[in-house]
């Protein structure tokens, strides 16, 4: 599949993003040139990045959209939900990707505690384990 074909499918099927709203939120800023090492310039290419994203989308890969700025958080969440992607729009926790096994077990434990709290069958927890 060519990039235009994939983009057309993504536009019609999933994406309904208001670009003006995202530009107002500052999603397009990224890192300033003073925040990256000049020796990395040969490895930074928007064209290659777009090609990589479109190729991955054509193969049905999953994406993680990260936008933790206060202004961009709502736009990122809406765009990711519409595109059926995973997203992080609050605080990025260190090791979330590199230590995924531990992160996943903590998320499952948190989910179980929330369901116990909602159903009322929560057991007695020590002070540090209570949910407020």
For the terminal residues, how far apart are their CA atoms? 50 Å
Q: How large is the radius of gyration?
A: 19 Å
Largest sheet: 2 strands, parallel
Main structural class: mainly alpha
Tell me the number of strands.
2
Overall 3D form:
elongated
Average pLDDT, to the nearest integer?
76
Strand order of the largest sheet: 1-2
In DSSP terms, counting alpha (H) and pi (I) runs of 4 or more, how many helices? Answer: 5
Order of helices and strands: HHHEHEH
Low-confidence spans: pLDDT under 50, at least 5 residues?
1-12
The portion of residues forming beta strands comes to: under 5%
Determine the fraction of residues in helical runs and give it as a percent range.
40-55%
Give a verbal description of the structure:
Belongs to the universal ribosomal protein uS2 family. Keywords: Ribonucleoprotein, Ribosomal protein. InterPro entries: Ribosomal_uS2, Ribosomal_uS2_bac/mit/plastid, Ribosomal_uS2_CS, Ribosomal_uS2_flav_dom_sf. One of its GO terms (molecular function) is structural constituent of ribosome. It comes from Prunus dulcis. The termini are far apart. The protein is mostly helical and 132 residues long. The longest helix is centred in the last third of the chain and has 20 residues, at 100-119. The model is unreliable at 1-12 (pLDDT under 50). α1 crosses α3 (46-58) and α2 (19-25) packs antiparallel against α4 (70-83). It has helices at residues 3-13, 19-25, 46-58, 70-83, 100-119, and strands spanning 64-66, 86-88. Strands 1-2 form a two-stranded parallel ribbon. β1 (64-66), α4 and β2 (86-88) form a beta-alpha-beta unit. It folds into 2 domains: 1-92, no CATH class; 93-132, no CATH class.
